[in-house]
């Protein structure tokens, strides 16, 4: 029946398949950092301990792999906000997350050439990440305000221009 997901598409990935995907993403991030968008996909597969077929099953194109690397980093940043908020005081969570954010920006700058090669340009990639990053900052700042750790009149995005406000 058209429109209805198949049983196969509803299944959760096998544990080993998920591990393979995560290994590929870690190795790819390092490879794109070292060599840019032209990093060898065969070398990435080999270093991840998988065959080329496994890499292409998860990421059918170079662009798909580059996008997945970037989105994984954004997801890690968003997850860190939730994890840090759960175990640290509001101001400590904000400080720790901002340090991770600085690392994220540095890593993004390093893989920028790979990100810029993605079809449709980097702005398509950055659009979705912007929501996650701004959401994390907003949640951390509001929690710190409510706890009294920072001034209540702080406006974290007040002086930001839309095109340059948050490095995406």
Question: Quick gist of this model?
Answer:
The chain has 168 residues and is mainly alpha-helical. It is built from 8 helices and no strands.
Describe the protein's topology:
Elements: H1 7-10, H2 15-35, H3 41-48, H4 52-58, H5 62-87, H6 90-110, H7 112-116, H8 122-147
Helix pairs in contact: 2-3, 2-5, 5-6, 5-8, 6-8
Question: What does the model show?
Answer:
By secondary structure, the protein is mainly alpha-helical. It has two domains: 13-60, Homeodomain-like (Arc Repressor Mutant, subunit A, Orthogonal Bundle), CATH 1.10.10; 67-168, Tetracycline Repressor, domain 2 (Orthogonal Bundle), CATH 1.10.357. The chain is 70% helix and 0% strand. It contains eight helices and no strands. The longest helix is centred in the middle third of the chain and has 26 residues, at 62-87. It is elongated, with a radius of gyration of 19 Å.
**Could you say what the CATH topology of the largest domain is called?**
Tetracycline Repressor, domain 2
Task: Detail the poorly predicted runs.
Answer: 162-168
Global outline? elongated
Name of the CATH homologous superfamily of the largest domain:
Tetracycline Repressor, domain 2
Helical segment count: 8
Helicity, in percent? Answer: over 70%
What is the residue-averaged pLDDT? Answer: 82
The top-level CATH class of the largest domain is Mainly Alpha
* N-to-C series of helices and strands: HHHHHHHH
Radius of gyration: 19 Å
